[in-house]
Design a protein that fits this description.
By secondary structure, the chain is mainly α. The protein has a domain at 3-81. 83% of the residues lie in helices and 0% in strands. It contains five helices and no strands. Helix 1 (3-16) packs antiparallel against helix 3. The relative contact order is 0.06.
Length: 162
């Protein structure tokens, strides 16, 4: 782990033992891009060897800030903690996924309902078709019987005439 970070952190923890305000100041200081708190700025500059005249936009300060942030993330990871920014990003992603899941579940319910309704409608069509075939079959049977009866009657008539 970064030597400068450990020195900074150790001194911060010693100072924090004097009051809770230090941890709240640290959170605000980091959220503001390491600006705002003169005490934390002085501590940071001391342990990271950044001159007081170096501005926050200076590449040297930026390099030290990135090194501090990487060391801080490594420290949190070792403790099993997650930075609040990472947590917020994951929470936002979880909410988006939950919304998507809810929408997909609603769509699935709707499609299942439509499918069951279409199956019922298909069943009605099939039943109607079966009834039509049955009626046509009965009518055809009657027609063949009557045609058969007609020809059978003519056949008997022809035999009597001979």
């Amino acid at each position: 782990m970064d030597k400068h970070f450990l020195e900074f952190w150790g001194n911060l923890l010693l100072a924090t033992a004097k009051g809770q305000a230090q941890l709240e100041d640290l959170s605000q200081w980091m959220a503001q891009g390491m600006s705002g708190s003169q005490q934390l700025n002085a501590l940071f500059r001391k342990f990271y060897g950044v001159d007081r005249q170096t501005q926050a936009a200076d590449p040297l300060f930026d390099t030290a800030r990135r090194a501090f942030e990487e060391a801080f993330r490594a420290y949190l990871k070792a403790l099993g903690a997650v930075p609040q920014s990472d947590y917020a990003a994951l929470e936002k992603q979880r909410e988006a996924l939950q919304k998507k899941t809810d929408e997909q579940e609603a769509l699935i319910r709707k499609l299942r309902l439509e499918l069951s309704e279409s199956r019922l409608a298909q069943g009605d069509v099939v039943r109607g078709f079966q009834e039509l075939v049955q009626v046509q079959s009965e009518q055809f049977q009657k027609l063949t019987e009557s045609v058969g009866g007609f020809f059978a009657g003519r056949h008997r008539q022809d035999k009597h005439e001979e």
